[in-house]
Amino acid sequence: MEKLELRFTYEKETKNTARYQEELGDVAHSSRDIAVGTLYVQREALGDPPPQRLRVTIEAEED
To answer: Which helix (H) or strand (E) holds 56?
Structure first.
């Protein structure tokens, strides 16, 4: 598996989470290429106010 670096843009807050949408870019050139899509993060993990953009790295862990 190739390491993925994805970027997400803040959409809105729900009761206990902040909702982010994956941006198109290096990995996703169209909606069919989206790796994660919508990302929900607990609000307490982000602080107040939540950041407008997040960068998430996904890579396989070797045993």
So the answer is: strand 53-58
